[in-house]
Structure formats: structure tokens, C-alpha cells
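Suppose you are handed a protein chain with no further information: no name, no annotation, nothing but its sequence. What can you learn? This example shows the usual starting point.
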Amino acid sequence: MRNTLSLRVSTRAFKAVLGASLAGALLVSALPSASAATGSVGGVCTKVGDKAKVGKTNVICKAVSGKKIWTDTKVYKVSISANAILGGKNNQTATWIQNYVIPQFELSNAEKGKQVDVSFTPAGIDDNQFKTQLALDLASKRGPDVMALDGFWVAEFAEAGYIKPLESVVGASAVNAWDGWSQIPASVQGVMSYNGKKYGVPQGTDGRIIYYNKKLFADAGLPANWQPKSWAELLTAAKTIKTKTPTVNPLQLNAGDGMGEATAMQGFLNLLGGAGSLIYDAKTKKWAGNTKAVRDMLGFYDSVYNTDKVGNSDWQLLAGENGRNESFKAFAEGKLAMIIEGDYLWRGVINPVSGNFKMADRNTNVGFAKIPAQTAKSGVNGQSFMSMSGGSGYALNPNSANKNVAWDLLKFINAKEPVSSFMAIGGAVRISQRQDVNTAVLKTDPCLKFVFENAIPNTFFRPANVNYNAVSVLLQKATTSIVQGKSVAVTAAAYETALKELVGAANVASN
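A reasonable first move is to predict its three-dimensional structure. Written in C-alpha cells, the prediction is:
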């Protein structure tokens, strides 16, 4: 077990890690780039070389889409980067950027008389490696003009000064004038926000729900259209399944540090919110320590894994992704009745065609339910149901030589038609950032429609704070402690002690 002091995260430490990685890292800017500049603005007009002078700008006659226009002879070069590569990691994103975004953006500018040359810097590497490489470029005031970022990284990059609020890059008037914001819910905008400032535009989001097996529910005498309204009702259903169908695992609630951030997003953050507290209070700037909400959350874990024994403790104590994969396999095979997960489970894991754990009867035998608060209206903001969301997006490089064109590109990739085109590639439908696209696209997918309509309105995001990762690890270890049989009181006290060492006692709330 690592010493908790080694978990401390700071801007200085973040930059130090990047500096130490410089010698061996491959800079993102050094990766091969692909451009769609060839022929995208058409050939010259009939009178080759026909030129004129408009004000102080030299222009040349070009033919675009069968039209003759006067085009600024200056070529505006911008680049876009994502951890995606054709035929490999995130192929959908790479295909979209190279085959749609670049040619369409260049053409739309050419039709306005502006020559834009967009290049794509692909990658297909580990996310943490991509993050380090991108940060190294930004630290050297280089890198792509428009870059894909996990929303999880925004706080670190902002604190390090590698990215800046959009209004600082292109001006508040330009940012506020974009009509796209009206289609992106405020909660979703939070994916790419930090300290109340927008650092980019989100690409999409997700939500957490309870998946349940309708056949196993029927075998246990539970209704097909099931919706628990409290933790007690959730536990009652799990105990009923345990009694009526003893060979079935009743409930998977991710726990333990082996599962990493999945324990947070699918587990304790939803429960903590259902007990009326977020892990970090942005107003008081304090972290939840040994509070009643934390104890109640740990108490629910204790019920699942110790008192009522409706969860499989062995899965939670396996290393890495092994435990989570065991739960996926069990659910796909009809040996697990309930699992709390993100919509990724439906889209990817148990997809009957392409899933890692294909579930042949997914479309007919899987039901969906909202995650209940501890009791009705006991959740944060008086909510009766909870969800957590993640997501990613695109930010601007504050060192871009063509900031306004980069901003135009950022707006373009988040407009209705481009977002719709992304959804159409490979049939990989997911929840987008735009409400108008979701309304049209998600209506044919029952799970994503349910998440969009029921989970997203009740959702919260992880705090945009550089200490979050380390605090999350402390709570992951606390859930491990519970699964191993230690008491809630002892576990909560040990968690708070480690938390105070990490963020300082003055920044911890207790009650």
C-alpha cells in the first residue's frame, strides 16, 4: 500500500512529472500528421492567375463547388489532435476527423473566401501517455491548436497554465455569442469547466443507472418494471433474490481500490450524493471527511458485503480490472441480477454484436432503473435519484498562431450536423453534448434514451480539483476496508486521518 503522502497532487508535482518525462517521451507534435488540404478548395478559375486587390488584401479567383469566388491568398493553418487513429484506438473519432471534419471545415471556409488548411495529429496510445505527451507540448508552448481532453484532466491542465478559459483565448464576446451553448445543458458544460470558467466544449457525456435481469427478477417474484425509491428498497430486492434464487449473485456495487475510479463513478459517489453530500463542496472548499453522509455511504457498503451479504466480496478484492470483468461476465451469462454501471455497459460490454461479454438477450431481458437516494428527497439538492457523469471534450491551445480560426473549428465540430455525422459512423451511438442531436438519435435506443431522460437530469460531475484523484483513491481504499470486514467507524476515522494529511485539516469537513 502506498503511503498517503505520496498521493498528494500539486501543480508543482504535475510539472515535475512532465519534466522528468521529457527525455523519453515522444512529443505529440512529432507524431505523423494527416491533412485533407488536397483539392478541398477546388482548382483555379478559368482565367488562371486572375488577381485583384481588395483593400490591402491580395486575393485570387478560385472555383469552389462549381462557383467562382475571390479567395484570400493567405492560408490559415490549424491542427487538431486526439488519442485516435484509423483502424485502431477510437477509430470512430479518427474517421470522423479525417473524412468529415477536415474536408467539410476547409470547404465551408473556402466558400466564404478563406483558405484554411487543417491537419490531424493522430495517436493510438495509452491515455496517460497521451496526456503526458500533450502536456509536454503545451509546456513548451507548442502542440495542436484544438486538442481532445478528458474532462478529468481539465483542472490539472488549467492549474498548470497549459490551457486557459476560452474567453481569455478568443474573447468573452466571441465565446458568449456562440449559439451552440443553448443546446448543451449547463451540467454537461461542466465537463470542460473549472472554477466557473469554460475551458473547452464537451464532446458528450454518460450516466449511471441500475441494470437488472428481468428473467431473474421474475424468478424471484419481482416486477418487470422495477424502480427502487430508497436504499432500503434496493436492499430488499437484493435479499429477495438471494432467498428465492440462491445460486444467483444479487447485486454488484463496485468496491475496492483494485477497480480504481470505477469504484467512485459506479459506487460511492452516487451513494454519497444520495446521502445528501458531494465529495467536495465548491462553496466552502472543503472535502467530506468523517461526516454522517460518508458513514451512511460506507454503511450501505457494509450492508451489501457484510450484514446482508448480497454482493460478491471476492470480485471486489481482485486486482485491476479482473473483478469488474467477472461481474460483466456474470451479468451477461444471467448469473448476476443487478449491476450499477454507466451506459458503457450497454453500448460496449454486453452489446450482443460487438461486446466483450456478448449478451444475446440484452435487448429483451435487460431492464433499467434510476439509482435511488438514501430516502426520498434525501439526495443533494433534495433529489430523490442520483447519477454521476463523465465525459471529454476539445480545448484551445492558448499559444495558437490562429486562435480565431481554431475557435471556428471548435464551434464547427460541435455544431448539429457534424455531431450527427459522428453518431452515424460505425453505428456507435452514444449520448452527445447536444440536446437536438440526442432527441433525434437516441429515440431508437431504449437504454440511452432512458439515461438521457432519467439519469442526466439528476447527474453530477467529479469536482474539477487537482486533489480529486488522490481523494478518490482514499475512498476506494475505505471501501476495500469495509469489504474486508472492518467497521464503518474505524474505516471512516482512518479515511479522515489520511484525508487531512493529504489536503490539510482546515480543508476537511466533519460532523
